[in-house]
Amino acid sequence: MSNLETVPRETRCTATAAARPVVERLTGHAVALGGPRAMTVTRTLPSRGRRMVGAWCFLDDYGPEIAAMRVPPHPHTGLQTVTWLLSGEVLHRDSLGSLQEVRPGQLNLMTAGRGISHSEESAEALLHGVQLWVALPDGDRHTAPHFEHHADLPVLEEGDARITVIMGSLGGAVSPARAYTPLVGAEITLSGGADLPLEPGFEHAALLLSGDVEAAGSRLERGALLYLGSGRPELRLRGQGRLLLLGGEPFDEEIVMWWNFIGRSHDEIVAFRQEWAEGAEDGVFGTVRGFDGAPLPAPALPTTQLKPRGRVR
């Protein structure tokens, strides 16, 4: 999914993380995905106070609502896009020639690497899902772009929790999706209580998808990400509902995230934008074929220098 803001803010990131368990509520803000009949998403990463959880650097939560998704072809660099649905169907096209419909319980994972473009669309239906980005470390961010679809993901049970491991590993279950840093992403369906084993060296966060759930003694709220810090050997969950667990080894690099690009400097971002604006079919981002409409134009760059700093204000 694209960041469709016409005046995207610079996101400055470093590796600061809470080196102990904390409970910090990050309230999301509403973003319209284009047009007068746009679907509205709630963005909790990056937030005003905290930019990343491990390598997870972007989180949009949308629905449930009757809506049609239409995100024109747009570029990405230096990241992976993770599409996860709870209801509805979304069609993915990319400049590699991939054409894939994603359904609830299936993972679409696109690694942008040095550059890719893609589109997403759906018929009008009940849509509910999340879109996430994972920042690639410097040694892998220029890798060749590639696409993965995983319809069969590992599931484990802990207490009254049924857990689908979307990326990374949890409780001995390992996702087949390729990850470039140690992390975890999991959907949890809870029907009572559970104590989930965690990697203490990871920082973690939880997002309520539906129902009434407490994590680490704090009630989850729709539209807010509960940041849990690190140093937790387990996470106590109580209630009935569904939630998303994110975690990872604190990302130890500074990055600049602007619009749909992740880079390391102002000049890189300028070059990425220029490449997309020129629109060469044989360029870095290629061409998405089959989408009925024009590519998304690049917004204007800010008048100030983009700098890789300040993940936590």
From TrEMBL:
Family to which the UniProt record says this protein belongs: Belongs to the pirin family.
Ranges for domain Pirin C-terminal:
187-279
* Classification via Pfam families: Pirin, Pirin_C
All residue ranges annotated as the Pirin N-terminal domain in the record:
41-134
| Stated name of the protein | Redox-sensitive bicupin YhaK (Pirin superfamily)
Query: SUPFAM superfamilies under this entry?
Result: RmlC-like cupins
Gene3D superfamilies given in the database record? Jelly Rolls
